[in-house]
């Protein structure tokens, strides 16, 4: 018998050391995130491992699993607690050690192992931990699997059995790096800033980029789990500005920034201007659809309207569909539709053959960007960006909203806009042209300006993005419109950043 996890236990007590603690809200839509020691303890992580092992058996999958951990002060101990639970459930565990998340996804294919459990808090601040899980490569869990996992763990409905075992794969990163770099070198000599925010990717990104023929300027690539400069998140302006300064100082062709677990890549052009990931997606879609006839792409609802309106994509026969934000949703949809690639505004990119295996990998994205520049020898990154039709778009902005209420707030916001549309009401003097409600609500008005509000899938926050093809002022107008609706809900707090 193993005790049912408690939702709250006080640290520095007998109970904290003797019982599992698992806060239920840590089971999110497609992965798991907790504040370590405040929302989950090591026995709680062990319970998660036993629950995951039980779910793998329930899904009828061979009980073998890849695991690795990101570079944080506590991630290794969390991984070993998870491994003890997985082994108790009868799983054979393949441990690849310190890794970026896509290295664990790669290992599923390379070692022919069906399941994965990567210990990472991704780009979240220190204090957070989590696990990205899957049992059907290249996909990761969605809401159905996460709901079932939550039921098993919180009810201690484990099916532990003998037969679990452990194998450590020595020097595993070399296999991953060889897979990425076994290809022709770039013809064009590119000077690239590789920024890692002292996160896990620092151990691998410079080496990969050098191997494909880049001259690499390393920026904060030394591993340091205190993250002394800034959080490794290429959506945050602090990291983007650090990359900008390095690009300008070294006169680099491009700056590439990797998040804490290496599955996303942010881009700064040769003039030091950050290019939001959805615009990078449009540039890559142009490059790829010129080679692959009638290419299909999937993009998330936070992404630019250019995927539909860009004349070059239209001329090349590219087709794009919008889908739910979230790496698991996007990965699944890209896989189901057989799209050439999926692009998410956060920087998760999913490349199917011949570019990748369908999972998100910041280094595969970085290589695709270098190849795009290689195929445009007379053009800079800024030239390729400036060739896009001009739009004014915001970064991702996140006002605080507690996990317990954020979905109900979004339901009310969706109903508000649906009601306005049904009445034919105008917002900011313009009619609503389109509402997309697959994930929160994306409101587009007559002039093509749009605003999105949705619930964050992995933090106690909402997500707000706005864009206008008309002017910077219209972008600000859309933000004020969206924000005025959110301000009618007292549960919505301060933003992490604003335009």
UniProtKB/TrEMBL annotation:
<dbReference type="InterPro" id="IPR016055">
    <property type="entry name" value="A-D-PHexomutase_a/b/a-I/II/III"/>
</dbReference>
<dbReference type="GO" id="GO:0046872">
    <property type="term" value="F:metal ion binding"/>
</dbReference>
<keyword id="KW-0460">Magnesium</keyword>
<protein>
    <submittedName>
        <fullName>Phosphoglucomutase</fullName>
    </submittedName>
</protein>
<dbReference type="InterPro" id="IPR036900">
    <property type="entry name" value="A-D-PHexomutase_C_sf"/>
</dbReference>
<feature type="domain" description="Alpha-D-phosphohexomutase alpha/beta/alpha">
    <location>
        <begin position="175"/>
        <end position="272"/>
    </location>
</feature>
<dbReference type="Pfam" id="PF02880">
    <property type="entry name" value="PGM_PMM_III"/>
</dbReference>
<dbReference type="InterPro" id="IPR005846">
    <property type="entry name" value="A-D-PHexomutase_a/b/a-III"/>
</dbReference>
<dbReference type="Pfam" id="PF02878">
    <property type="entry name" value="PGM_PMM_I"/>
</dbReference>
<feature type="domain" description="Alpha-D-phosphohexomutase alpha/beta/alpha">
    <location>
        <begin position="278"/>
        <end position="390"/>
    </location>
</feature>
<feature type="domain" description="Alpha-D-phosphohexomutase C-terminal">
    <location>
        <begin position="423"/>
        <end position="482"/>
    </location>
</feature>
<dbReference type="InterPro" id="IPR005843">
    <property type="entry name" value="A-D-PHexomutase_C"/>
</dbReference>
<dbReference type="GO" id="GO:0016868">
    <property type="term" value="F:intramolecular phosphotransferase activity"/>
</dbReference>
<feature type="domain" description="Alpha-D-phosphohexomutase alpha/beta/alpha">
    <location>
        <begin position="26"/>
        <end position="158"/>
    </location>
</feature>
<dbReference type="Pfam" id="PF00408">
    <property type="entry name" value="PGM_PMM_IV"/>
</dbReference>
<dbReference type="InterPro" id="IPR005844">
    <property type="entry name" value="A-D-PHexomutase_a/b/a-I"/>
</dbReference>
<comment type="similarity">
    <text>Belongs to the phosphohexose mutase family.</text>
</comment>
<dbReference type="InterPro" id="IPR005845">
    <property type="entry name" value="A-D-PHexomutase_a/b/a-II"/>
</dbReference>
<keyword id="KW-0479">Metal-binding</keyword>
<keyword id="KW-0597">Phosphoprotein</keyword>
<dbReference type="InterPro" id="IPR005841">
    <property type="entry name" value="Alpha-D-phosphohexomutase_SF"/>
</dbReference>
<dbReference type="Pfam" id="PF02879">
    <property type="entry name" value="PGM_PMM_II"/>
</dbReference>
<dbReference type="GO" id="GO:0005975">
    <property type="term" value="P:carbohydrate metabolic process"/>
</dbReference>
<keyword id="KW-0413">Isomerase</keyword>
């Amino acid at each position: 018998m193993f005790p049912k996890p408690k939702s709250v236990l006080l640290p520095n007590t007998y109970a904290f050391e003797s019982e599992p603690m698992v806060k239920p809200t840590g089971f999110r839509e497609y992965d798991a995130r907790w504040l370590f020691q405040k929302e989950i303890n090591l026995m709680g992580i062990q319970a998660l491992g036993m629950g995951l092992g039980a779910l793998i058996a329930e899904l009828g999958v061979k009980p073998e699993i890849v695991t690795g951990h990101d570079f944080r002060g506590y991630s290794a101990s969390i991984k070993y607690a998870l491994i003890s639970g997985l082994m108790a459930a009868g799983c054979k565990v393949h441990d690849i050690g310190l890794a970026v998340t896509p290295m664990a996804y790669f290992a599923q294919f390379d070692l022919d192992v069906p399941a994965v459990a990567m210990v990472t808090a991704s780009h979240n601040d220190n204090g957070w931990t989590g696990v990205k899980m899957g049992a059907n490569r290249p996909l990761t869990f969605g809401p159905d699997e996460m709901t079932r996992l939550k039921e098993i763990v919180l009810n201690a409905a484990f099916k532990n059995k003998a037969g679990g075992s452990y194998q450590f794969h020595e020097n595993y990163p070399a296999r991953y790096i060889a897979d990425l770099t076994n290809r022709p070198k770039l013809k064009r000599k590119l000077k690239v800033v590789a920024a890692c925010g002292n996160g896990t990717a620092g151990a691998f990104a410079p080496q990969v980029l050098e191997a494909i023929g880049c001259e690499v300027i390393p920026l904060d690539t030394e591993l340091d789990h205190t993250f002394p400069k800034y959080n490794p998140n290429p959506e945050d302006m602090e990291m983007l500005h650090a990359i900008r300064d390095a690009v300008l100082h070294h006169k680099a062709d491009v700056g590439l920034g990797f998040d804490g677990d290496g599955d996303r890549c942010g881009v700064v052009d040769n003039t030091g201007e950050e290019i939001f990931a959805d615009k990078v997606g449009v540039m890559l879609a142009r490059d790829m659809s010129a080679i692959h006839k009638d290419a299909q792409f999937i993009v998330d609802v936070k992404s630019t309207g250019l995927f539909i309106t860009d004349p070059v994509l239209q001329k090349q026969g590219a087709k794009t569909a919008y889908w739910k934000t979230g790496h698991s949703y996007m990965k699944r949809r890209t896989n189901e539709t057989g799209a050439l690639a999926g692009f998410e505004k956060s920087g998760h990119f999913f490349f199917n053959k011949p570019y990748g295996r369908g999972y998100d990998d910041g280094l595969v994205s970085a290589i695709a960007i270098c190849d795009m520049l290689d195929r445009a020898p007379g053009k800079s990154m800024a030239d390729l960006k400036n060739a896009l039709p001009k739009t004014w778009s915001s970064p991702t902005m996140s006002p605080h909203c507690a996990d317990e209420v954020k979905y109900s707030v979004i339901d009310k916001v969706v109903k508000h806009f649906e009601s306005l549309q049904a009445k034919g009401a105008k917002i900011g003097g313009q009619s609503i042209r389109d509402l997309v409600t697959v994930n929160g609500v994306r409101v587009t008005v007559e002039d093509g300006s749009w605003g999105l509000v949705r619930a964050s899938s992995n933090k106690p926050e909402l997500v707000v993005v706005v864009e206008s093809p008309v002017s910077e002022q219209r972008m600000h107008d859309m933000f004020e419109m969206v924000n005025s609706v959110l301000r009618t809900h007292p549960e919505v707090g301060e933003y992490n950043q604003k335009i």
